[in-house]
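Hi Q.,

Before the meeting this afternoon, I wanted you to have the nicotinamide-adenine-dinucleotide prediction in hand. No need to reply - just skim if you have a minute. The sequence and ligand are here:
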Amino acid sequence: MDANIKRTGTEGKERARQEQHTRTADFVMTDYRLLINGSLVEGAGTLEVINPATGGILTDAPRADRAQLDQAVAAAKAAFPYWSATPLRKRGVLLVKLAEALAAEQDEFARLLTEEQGKPLPQAIDEIAHSIATIRYFATLDLPLEVVKEDSKQKVIRQRKPLGVVAAITPWNLPMLLLMIKVAPALLAGNTVVAKPAPTTPLTTLKFGELCARILPAGVVNIIVDQNDLGTALTSHPDVAKVAFTGSTATGKKVMESAARTLKRLTLELGGNDAAIVLEDADPKEVAPKIYAGAMFNAGQACIGIKRVYVHESIYDATCDELGRLAQGTVVGDGLEQGTQMGPIQNKVQFEKVKEFVEDARQNGKIVAGNGALEREGYFIQPTIVRDISDNARLVREEQFGPVLPVLRYSDIDDVITRANDTDFGLGGSVWSSDRDRAFGVAARINAGTVWVNKHLDVGLDTPFAGAKQSGIGVEMGQEGLEEFTQATIINMAK
Ligand code: NAD
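Predicted structure with the ligand bound:
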């Protein structure tokens, strides 16, 4: 791992830049910095950021070492007394300024997001717009004192206090939005933050650090980048009070283990294997485009994307045909090219995993549309629809996190609910029917944090979002999502 660290003496850095210039036509002149204690600083090393649409190097990003992680946590700890004592409304005003600054540069952020993440530019624009809306939303919330009860003998009040230093750890599929969902409520509640993006998508987070450096007091937000090597140091750090983590279930378990040493507060938003159940009264032509969109959004790299579809036998063939037609008509390509509807898989490791899922589908099912990787540079997978696949296939049991969708047949509603629930995941699910009351009855039997009816992937800013079973612990979004960044103190007064 350390071999990947290039020491950043001025000379070495210049040489690295020149080498990079000659290595790839994708070279973009960048000058990214970590944010530690209000200063934009070079990393102890660098790491290469790859453009997934080409497989070539996009740029270098600074990479922190353990000492810089400790400096970031120390800065956040030192800023906490001042920031937590700043009135909540004043913190809200600074959040609005952050949102305004992001809005002023939204085009640059969106383009950079497409370059590092791969998603089509219109979807990157959407992600930045949602990020801005998220900051603005949290800036409107409040944490008032609540009277829990009052009678002739006592008055009991609940106060919500900030926790301290929050570690915000994010994955590579929605790097900006998932960061804002953590940073905005953490700051409004009076916490300070050390944020760490995924190593393959650090750039938009680092650019956000430039806005924080301009707007927030020193140390309130700190941003470090690692190469998957500083996570444990951050989540076990004695001066970190809470970890707000989004990522895979496997990593979430490690986070929980290392956070246990100092009993940190945790929010874990983890993997999913959402089932969509299509009842026999649904119209395949009407529901297929919505199901397809729910599965293929972000090239299938969404925690709450549809990962398995169960269709009643009476409309099974028609639904498979519709989904196959949609897959064939999807324009896959570089997210910066106009007309692209689906971008590449974000990184090579995931690209290889998704190719394995396609292979599994070939062996255990029948491919209706799509044929694995595209024969071109970059990490492109054709949207793939698979039918007549066994419940035990990897593609059905595991989280594929790519544009490969299994469609399964059922005849009995009780049986399909059992099959949908037969998983350790419990993030989301959906039921599709022309009879909403009937669909509600089925939705109520799905064991997941969110179940939609006749839609999927709709997460409202004011609607609590949480994973059941091994899809997570704790809540994000809404007032509850804000309160997760606080400790309730009960003040019980005699009268
Ligand atoms: P990942 O678990 O590999 O990485 C997530 C983050 O954790 C990265 O920043 C990574 O550097 C960091 N990390 C790695 N090892 C760590 C450790 N030991 N301790 C602490 N942090 C560590 O996940 P990924 O591959 O980046 O993202 C894909 C996964 O994220 C999928 O499983 C997906 O379902 C999940 N996800 C969940 C949600 C949700 O809200 N539930 C949203 C988006 C993505």
